[in-house]
Amino acid sequence: MQRRHVLGAASAAALALASTALLPAQPTYDPWAWVVWGRELVQGSLDTSAGPSWKPLPPIVIAALSPLRLLSETLPATVWVLAVRFAAIVGIVLTARLAVALARSAWPERRDFAVPAALLAAAALLAGGGFLRYFAAGSDAPLAVSFAALGALALLSGRPRLGACALALLVLVRPEATPIFAFVAWRAFSPRAAAAALAAVVALWTVPEWVGSGDPLGAFKQAASRPSWAASNADDPVLASLGEAARLLGPVTLAGLVAASLALLARRTRATGAARWLLAITFAWVAAVAASTALGFSGNARYYAPIVPLAAALAAVGLVQVVAFVDGRSARLSPLAALVPGAGLLVAGAALVSSFGAVRERMDAEASLARALAAAPAAIGARVPASSEREGLAGARRLIEAGTLRVDRPFQTHAAYILGVPIVAVERPRRKLPRYALDHPRIPTANERRGSQLRASLGRAARERWRLLATIDGWRIIVRSD
Fold first, then answer.
1. Does 342 map to a domain?
2. Which 3 state secondary structure label does DSSP give 404?
């Protein structure tokens, strides 16, 4: 490994660690489920019958981190979040390098395209919807971005085996990339090796799910389960899914993609072949996800994550080409060209600042959940000893298992980890509403982005039967008054 790569990795790791000064390393719903499953893999008690859909890579990595629990029960979760933040920073660099590679390939005579293309690609990525939320919480989206960018960059530089390995990792978080991985692996390795790699990927997706839920296709059925927040429940599922894609890509990428499409249509040469292929893959992916949404899959924005670096790199090249067109036939870009990357970075900065407050509030809510759970039995007046946090958590566990207390949906996987129970013990549907609920009113849910999912799922008359019982570190214990 070259010295500059080591320095770059060290810098990315330092930035990921420094980010905890502003955003505590706290997972959210899906990542906490992976942490629970990682613990259960080590204990031999995997239960995937509740929670999000199974993804092989995160729980396996977190299981490998399980010795860290000897130092702190939450250390594997913290390390996972930091690893995702590291991957997100590396993904920005790889996307910028991909933009430079595309610019040099399509317009080799314009070496001055490199710097503005790199800056615009980074800006396009940062301006995308949800970037800070995914970065902060240890989501799979930054991993998908990094693996996809590495795969594309490796294939463009004539390193198909590295590209196939990157795509194999991508498939372990986004199974939609399996056909692309299979094709690249078939070209990069022998047919036998490619078939073995594909079989291993299929096994990692199906065998743990089979063990954990009794259904080897459980992950895919969960993805098609039409949860209340899914785009597939909209009046027009395709349009709703495309809206998710537009929000994820962000304004800089969308504007640049239009420019890139026009530029590549105007210049159909061999030199632009790689860019045209990536553009075709980007639009084909969008069409495939939108079509799957119409067929009942949720159409989650993260389904589009693998094309984000491709689209950002193409957008950067397209916007630089617009600047070159405005400059006329000048051999070099004018000083005014700095305004376009500058504007893109300003848009990215505004997007990050506007989302920071909500993301930080979610991190703080996750950090205080254990204290709220431990204090809940005493606040409810349950006859359980609660002289210490451990006894309070044991009391909360009994209340939840009895169906007396319910934790708000976005925090149920975290509660399962804190209480040391399978996710199904916290999420299990009850025949009747719980008497008490632990609710964080300022945290938007995936369902409706406005407060408690439990209360939002009820009719108006039912919501009015709930009253505030106690407040604990921003959390509310609400009780049914009927």
1. no
2. coil
